[in-house]
Amino acid sequence: MNLNLSNKVILISGGANGIGGAISSGLLEEGAIPVIIDPDEKAGAKLLKNSRGLQIPTLLTSEKDVEMAVKTAIQTFGRIDGIVNNAGINDGVGLEKGSPKAFAESVAKNLNHYYELAHFALPHLKSSNGSIVNISSKTALTGQGNTSGYTAAKGAILSLTREWAVELLPYQIRVNAVIPAEVITPMYERWIQSFDNPQEKLTSVTSKIPLGNRLTTPEEIAAMVIFLLSDKASHITGQQLHVDGGYTHLDRAL
Q1: Taking the model in full, what pTM does it have?
Q2: Structure confidence by residue, pLDDT tens digits, 45-91
Q3: Would you call 85 exposed, middle or buried from its count of C-beta atoms within 10 A (0-12, 13-18, 19+)?
Q4: Which of 35, 66, 84, 244 is deepest in the core (most CB within 10 A)?
Q5: 171 has catalytic annotation
Q6: Which of 114, 150, 188, 247 is catalytic?
Q7: DSSP output for 183-247
Q8: How confident is the model at residue 139 (pLDDT cuts 50, 70, 90)?
Q9: Max CA separation in the chain (angstroms)
Q10: Residues 153-182 pLDDT 10s
């Protein structure tokens, strides 16, 4: 299927590794031009080797960083056709073991750059009738425990997806969210290895994933994101799409 993404310029925050890396790689395969906003220059260079694209090595920790990233993309390619808000970290700031200050910092770290990237890219998305895809998390719906800041941010991202979809209707800009659950990324592998018996923990997790009793791959998340960015999803907006093997909505006791 031709997704008509050839030469489309797509900004991906956290686009060098894990889910973001799979999105960048998938976009390259479709002939798109990924702008990878990620400080991991080695991983970014590996993805972009002999390909048309750009890496902006920043963490997006400030409004100025985000504005600079958008300006750099425009100076380089002259247009923006889509953005993927993906960067974030499950930092373990809970209620009992957290603090109001740590909570506020966690929310800001996982949420503010989503708004800022959409805000600064908006004039260019209006010109291209572009698309926004926000990566959220199943924790926003299921909870996890001991990660109040992260889940609050991911819940807000779902709310903003609906809000922006409404606000941007006059510009034909589509806004959707993809909700991963248990995805086998380097960050996830490190989390599994933090347990006394990693294999036992992994088996416990996969046994609760109804479809195939296996983890979702980053490429499976990327496929949904890339479809939503494309013209083939031209009448889809304001949606929250789960790519999780039925983890969130099917009975995990099956």
Answers
A1: 0.96
A2: 999 999 999 999 999 999 999 999 999 999 999 999 999 999 999 99
A3: buried
A4: 84
A5: no
A6: 150
A7: B--HHHHHHHHTSSSHHHHHHHHHTT-TTTTSPBPHHHHHHHHHHHHSGGGTT--S-EEEESTTT
A8: very high
A9: 53
A10: 999 999 999 999 999 999 999 999 999 999
- Any idea of the CA torsion for 60, 64, 66, 67, to the nearest 10 degrees? -170
Distance, in Å, from the CA atom of 101 to the CA atom of 107, rounded to the nearest integer, reads 10
Give the SS3 label for residue 25. Answer: helix
**Closest to 198 (Cα-Cα) out of 92, 206, 248, 150:** 206
- Six token digits for residue 46: 């590996």
In the chain, which residues fall in CATH 3.40.50.720?
A: 9-181+217-243
Strands 131-135 and 9-13: unpaired
pLDDT given at position 1:
76
CATH of 9-181+217-243, one of 3.40.50.10190, 3.30.2290.10, 3.30.565.10, 3.40.50.720: 3.40.50.720
Q: Which amino acid is residue 157, in one-letter code? A: I
